[in-house]
Amino acid sequence: MKKGLLFAAVLPFLQGGLLPAQTPSIYATKVVAFHKGNGWGIFKTSNVLGPPSGAGYGGGSTHVLSLGAGGSVTLGFDVTITDGPGDDFLVFENPFYVGRSFRSFAELFFVEVSSNGKDFARFPSVYGGPPSSPGAFGTLQAGCCSGLGGMTPVAADPARRPWIDPADPCEAGGDSFDLADLRNHPLVKAGRVDLGKVRYLRLVDIVSGKEKDSRGRTIYDPGGPLGSADIDAVAVIHHTKNLTPRGPRVEVTFDKDKVRVVFSDPDGLSDLDPSTLHASLEGYSVPASSLLGCFRAASYSPKRVEFVLAGLPPGFPFTIGFSVRDRSGAFSASRRSRALGGRP
To answer: Cα 16 from chain centroid?
Structure first.
């Protein structure tokens, strides 16, 4: 083939005209920094990259990066995480429920975000566990903490369970975070952390009995002083390449003895796709219609509906979530834990 004809044949490929568009990864793609803490574990940094390898609700994955007691890892992404409607990313550890209870063998960690790689804003947290160590093989009640990672078992594993969406908190398990919870953080208000352009996550192991939550309460977890968080993966829900200004919004909030769930859509509730409505309770995926059947409709308009479940017993912790897509595929999810009565 003459050079001119060869060039004409390959030019469309060079220009990307005949190549499929590359979908950016929603998972962490690089370890920016790893500071190994004390104790034992699996210290293979590549394990934290890519999709989760959840072992389900009764067992913890070994495809993890252990932080070591007091250790940390900073992760980078090919996408830019942004503050969308509802939860914005999921962090997967390897906790599991013990027996048939909703008590979790949890090794907790703080979650921090940064837009410049230097300034990190830590999510506000509430610890509602026991006031002393539960012991090396103890457990924490599901829903007793919020704003911390390491509480919820992981169901998502695209290689073995491709039907589970790893970016849907109501299916995937793990612990979800909403960047809106950081709007009042001093670094955000000072403009040093841009919630619209988050490029880094830092996960910091909590040494049991030595760290405090945002309310000043000492945090204890079953790992003991030498146990540490074992990070499986991170999945991004909202990033700058998939966010749409006219997508749906799901909001779950606790208010004293009530839990409120709001669904809204700027194009009207009829734009929501009912086949995509999902729900979770204590991290388990449950039928959304059955769970909403426990609520009453408190208000309704063509673009917004609010459901309320009242009469919750005082001090009763639990985790509940809902997710939905609109007809164009835009997504929103909100999952909250009633730790000490609600959000920090």
So the answer is: 34
